Amino acid sequence: MTARRYRLDDPAAHRLARMSNSGLRAQKLIETFKCVGLLVVIMLVAAGPAGAGPYEEGLAAYQHQDYMAALEIWQPLAEQGNGQAQHHLGLMYAHGTGVPHDKAAAHMWFTLAAKHGFETARSARDVLVRQMTHGQIEEATLMTREWMAEHRR
Question: What is the per-residue pLDDT for 143?
Fold first, then answer.
């Protein structure tokens, strides 16, 4: 198949030239959008996840099994009344993950988190109570009362 030759005064040649020019403009526009899109992606990745704060940093450390870092981040948050951090400290003490296994401390943190409406903390505490002695429950109750007296707002 041979290419058709157009004369300069041929209307088909003018239509073809207009289509070629609009095609080039569209291609340039697409390339510009790709560059802008790439720039936006780079900026979002550099900024980190939306809403990422100290709790999320602790969660990331915990998920990477850096339990000391998670504890260092969550402990102050828990003491400031952050229910999520309290719940996770309860889990750490209940399982002895990065901290000594301490049922009384786990009970205290679960109780505090439950007071903030974390039903999973309440459920975890209820399961834990079935594994505790009467003395451990009394110790946990006393720890919780003391903590609440110290941290009243």
Answer: 95
What pLDDT was estimated at residue 152?
A: 77
Burial of 113 (0-12, 13-18, 19+ CB in 10 A): buried
CA–CA distances in Å: residue 10 to residues 2, 23, 148: 18, 20, 90
Q: What is the pTM of this model?
A: 0.66
Could you count the other beta carbons within 10 Å of the beta carbon of residue 115? Answer: 15
Higher pLDDT, 27 or 70: 70
Alpha-carbon span 132 to 128, nearest angstrom: 7
Cα-Cα end-to-end distance for the chain: 87
Q: Which residues contact 125 (CB under 8 A, 6 or more apart)?
A: 90, 106, 107, 110, 111, 114
CA distance 111 to 94: 13
Q: To which residue do tokens 């903390």 refer?
A: 121
